[in-house]
Amino acid sequence: MLKHGLMMDRPLLLSGIIEHAAAQFGTVEVVSRETHGPLHRYTYADCAVRARRLAKALAALGLEPGATVGSIAWNNHRHLEAYYAVSGSGMVMHTCNPRLHPQQLVYIINHAEDEVVLFDATFAPLIKGIAAACPKVRAWVCLAEAAHTPAIEGVAHIVAYEDLIAPHDDAFEWPSFDERMGAALCYTSGTTGNPKGALYSHRAIALNAITICNPGIICLSTRETVLPVVPMFHINAWCLPYAAPVAGAKLVLPGPKLDGASLYELIESERVTVSAGVPTIWQGLIAHLDAHGLRFSTMVRTGTGGSAMPLALIAKFADEYGVEVRHGWGMTETTAVATMGALTGAEASLGAAERHAIVSKQGRSVFGIEIKVVDANGATVPRDGATQGELMVRGQWILERYFKAEGSALIDGWFPTGDIATIAADGVMQIRDRTKDVIKTGGEWISSIDLENAAVAHPAVAMAAVIGVKHPKWDERPLLFVVKKPGQALEKAEILDFLAQRVAKWWVPDDVMFLDALPVGGTGKVQKNELRSKYGGTFS
Ligand code: AMP
Question: Which helix (H) or strand (E) holds 404?
Fold first, then answer.
């Protein structure tokens, strides 16, 4: 008969992370770019005190465990405090992506049932446009002092964060509860229709945070200073705001300034050793270094993912700037990192070109995560590095079902990723393509189906199709194909203008091609592969 282990049964809760950092690394700094410009500097001990005060303030507003608190905010120290105050209180931290179309923002705020929304002053115009459509939100909290909190015409219940926490001291005991309770909610706009929510448990986030500290992943310790450029609204900044205090690493939060010059200045002034962000961010940073003949004095490693990191950029980082790229794969549904392209000892002694080629693949699954590739019938394909199929994933921090969904998202216990991959005999996975009908641009999704639906709403459009075309800066950009209704006139500018009024600005296609007909397959579906192979070159 199996024997029970005789260890304590203590839940893995996020409040434990910030209290660990406060107690063990109380003097380690958290540096944050304020939305109005200056750098703010304090310690993990200060952060924990203010998180406790915010927890009391939210309770005083009448929020109860299980309530949802939204945020539309940059990476900054108040957002960090909210991560811990909200989840630590047993509430759910719902990070909203400000790049979503306002209608989608309204949808996710209402779907999540946010009772309070925290926002940065940058997003005041956005709040103005959506507040009336979010009736459950009882307070809009600006992450600033009163002096930097804008009045927003027509929006009642705006309060400055500092005023909200001012009446409260930090005499607060974090509640204890089951580690499988929801801690954070992040919606993916990766598919068509309404965004879908991934509700991360405390356990999932804590396990992921511990994992990514490992030397083979991003390698965090008290010796490191980490700069998460990946936004805190995108999969919790790949869990780095949890991992840094687990490891006692100094944390640097860049606020709204994500251009190459600002990032370089911050990396140098704060002596950042490790950073993480999508490839587009690194293109901007490297372009700045190239243009000004600059060098990094402390940065040695950078984590990247979200889309494929170009081989040339990996080589440039390593060979010219001495920065090792750690290229991972993950998705909103995988609580950040699931596979990582770190080198084994034997691989590390290969020549530069061979090493970079290995890193450009998406790597091996980390402990806790299993991956397999299946064919159209669901049968596992051989690990030969050549046979492609859909990548399936399972593990302790993989989504089982979407928030409020009736059914499970799994197939035979595995999550279907919508990515087409190969796995080699040595376990290295490589993303080859995508079955998801989406375009990934600068790390963010554009739903091609939503764009097509918007285009066919134009009275002169009979059929529309959108594909992603490679782009040197943005990875992919949308290209729209239009078949006009007989006898109708339509110019490129007119349809682009029409779309600009219906979708987020950055969704508007880079180009339009008018065709006589779209290639249609046996099942009546537009054959996008045909469009891709014929027209899917590269935008300059
Ligand atoms: P998201 O949920 O927005 O983070 O998007 C996840 C998707 O981004 C994955 O399903 C992939 O399609 C893509 N992706 C993430 N990381 C990589 C990578 N390293 N290389 C290629 N595609 C990636």
Answer: none
- Residue 380 appears among annotated catalytic residues: no
Contacts of 256 (CB under 8 A, 6+ apart): 33, 35, 74, 120, 122
- Nearest Cα neighbor of 98 from 455, 439, 506, 499 is 506
What CA–CA distance (Å, rounded) separates 437 from 447? Answer: 7
Choose among 450, 456, 519: nearest CA to 490: 456
Q: Residue 272: which of 252, 290, 295 has the closest Cα?
A: 252
- CA-333 nearest atom, ligand 1: 2
Query: What does pTM read for this prediction?
Result: 0.91
- Residues 289 and 116: beta-carbon distance below 8 Å: no
The rounded average pLDDT for each run of 10 residues, N- to C-terminus, in the chain (540 residues) is 96 98 98 96 98 98 98 98 98 95 93 98 97 97 97 95 98 98 90 84 98 95 97 96 98 96 98 96 94 97 92 95 96 95 90 95 96 95 95 98 97 96 96 83 84 89 90 91 92 95 92 91 73 76
Nearest to 105 by CA among 195, 184, 191: 195
Answer left, alpha or beta for residue 12, where phi above 0 means left and psi between -120 and 50 means alpha: beta
Atom of ligand 1 nearest to the CA of 431: 21
Ligand 1: list residues with CB < 6 Å.
188, 190, 235, 305-308, 327, 329, 331-332, 362, 417, 419, 431, 434, 440, 445
Q: What dihedral angle (degrees, nearest 10) is formed by the CA atoms of 312, 315, 316, 321?
A: 170
Output phi, psi for 246, to 5 deg. Answer: -60, -45
Query: For the purposes of burial, counting CB atoms within 10 Å of the CB of 297, is it exposed (0-12), middle (13-18) or buried (19 or more)?
Result: exposed
DSSP 190-251: -SSSS-EEEEEEHHHHHHHHHHHTSTTTT---TT-EEEE-S-TTSHHHHTHHHHHHHHT-EE
Quote the tokens at residue 357.
Answer: 């080629």
